[in-house]
Amino acid sequence: MSMEITNRFENDVLVLGLDGRFDAHAAPQVEETFTTLFSQGATKVVVDFSAVGYLSSAGLRVLLVMIRKLKSAQGAIVLAGLQPHVKEVFDISGFTDLFTIEGSVQEALAAI
Amino acid sequence: MRQEITLTVPSSTEFLHVVGAVMSEMAALAGFDDRQRRRIELAVDEACSNVLLCAYQQESEQSYRIGCVKEASELRITITDWGQDYAFPAAGELSLPAKLPDPSSANIGLYLIYQIMDEVTFVSQTQQHVLSMRKLLHPSDARP
Amino acid sequence: MTKEATLQLPADTAYLKMIGEFVSRMAKISGFDDLDCKRIEVAVDEACTNVIEHTQRGASHDAFSICCRAVASGIEITISDRGAPFDFDSVAVPDVSAGAEDRPIGGLGIFLMKKFMDFVKYTPGADGMRHLTMSKNRPAG
């Protein structure tokens, strides 16, 4: 698989760890994992991007689905550890303004 | 959909790592574990290096083609060149590198191909040479 | 010397990683730094994702190809597939300042292609193939 997804809870916050390429192949996997956990009641989510070396618009689409669902459930999402290339794709797509972005998972947990 | 790729590259060593990266990824898609992936990449690299050496002899302006088909439990790789005619020794004609008094690197490369692949055939026609290799996916070599 | 390499492969997202390896290595050979290699990789990934999604909707059934050429000015890439012609230039530019609720899901792919490459052109071929050609110049110095 092009991406490994881990999940754990820090109190009531879901920490989603992504490792690999966030492209159109990985996107359905990430969306499905999130949707399952969301339906089980996870409304606060930290996404750990530190091991994501590559992002395309398919990944952005999933993030948009996530933020909409979470907002509609009065939840929150914070992203952590964006690598420079990933940050650039966020910047030019205008996604930097849509999301709270922190340097590390620890900072993200403090911010959420 | 047929799981087949074709890669055409210039006859220059500069592109060997491109071939290697693509083949390694194809081996992963076929289900081989990391160790077999590296071995398959090595066998293809040796086969391509042999093409550059024998068929093109440092002539980097030509191109050659690597084809790969993924079946349920095997990978079939063909390397086609249109360079000068050359011989590709059968497995029995190659000595173990350790036994060679003066091991030529080309022979070690071919020896490795035979060691790694399950089947190796070479067909030489006028100005077209096709090396076909099969690698079976045994359960012990599969990615966990 | 000829520095042209072509990869032909099935229209399946499982191959996107292979495409990335192929394109970023060809970009490196063309003299781009790591960040530009990633940009070129994204642009090609977006174009190929479009081809794959198009194919999976049943619009075509063939493999498609990616041709990379290292040229004096940088890199030229042509992605060719067998599909119905479409009006590339009429694709709406997404509003990248809209809020999460107002944003259309999708439409970013072509936007990213144009951002990351210097030139992107779609040509419906007379041969029933369609070609998306893009190029990027190496930064001066």
Q: Short description, anyone?
A:
The complex is a heterotrimer of chains A (112), B (144) and C (141). Chain A contains four helices and five strands; from the N terminus they run E-E-H-E-H-E-H-E-H. Chain A has 112 residues and is of the alpha/beta class.
Keywords:
heterotrimer, A: about 110 residues, alpha/beta, B: about 140 residues, alpha+beta, Heat Shock Protein 90, 5 strands, about 35% helix
Describe this structure in words.
The complex is a heterotrimer of chains A (112), B (144) and C (141). With 112 residues, chain A is of the alpha/beta class. In chain A, 41% of the residues lie in helices and 34% in strands. Chain A has a single domain, classed as STAS domain (Transcription Regulator spoIIAA). The longest helix of chain A has 16 residues, at 57-72. Chain A is globular, with a radius of gyration of 13 Å. Chain A starts with a strand and ends with a helix. The model of chain A has no long low-confidence stretch (mean pLDDT 93). Chain B has a 5-stranded antiparallel β-sheet with strand order 1-2-3-5-4, covered by helices on one side. Chain B has one domain (4-141): Heat Shock Protein 90 (2-Layer Sandwich). Chain B is built from 3 helices and 5 strands; from the N terminus they run E-H-H-E-E-H-E-E. The radius of gyration of chain B is 15 Å and the shape is globular. Helix content of chain B is 34%, strand content 27%. Chain B starts with a strand and ends in an 8-residue tail after the last strand. Chain C has 141 residues and is an alpha+beta fold. Chain C has one domain: Histidine kinase-like ATPase, C-terminal domain (Heat Shock Protein 90). Helix content of chain C is 33%, strand content 26%. Chain C is built from 3 helices and 5 strands. Chain C has helices spanning 16-29, 34-56, 108-116, and strands at residues 4-9, 64-71, 74-81, 119-124, 130-137. Chain C has a 5-stranded antiparallel β-sheet, with helices on one face. The relative contact order of chain C is 0.20. The mean pLDDT of chain C is 88. The chains are: A alpha/beta (112), B alpha+beta (144), C alpha+beta (141). Chain A binds chain C through residues 2, 21, 23-25, 54-58, 60-61, 64-65, 67-68, 71, 84-85, 88-89, 92-94, 97-98, and chain C through 13-14, 16-17, 20, 35, 38-39, 41-42, 45-46, 49, 52-53, 96-101, 103, 105-106, 108-109, 111-112, 115.
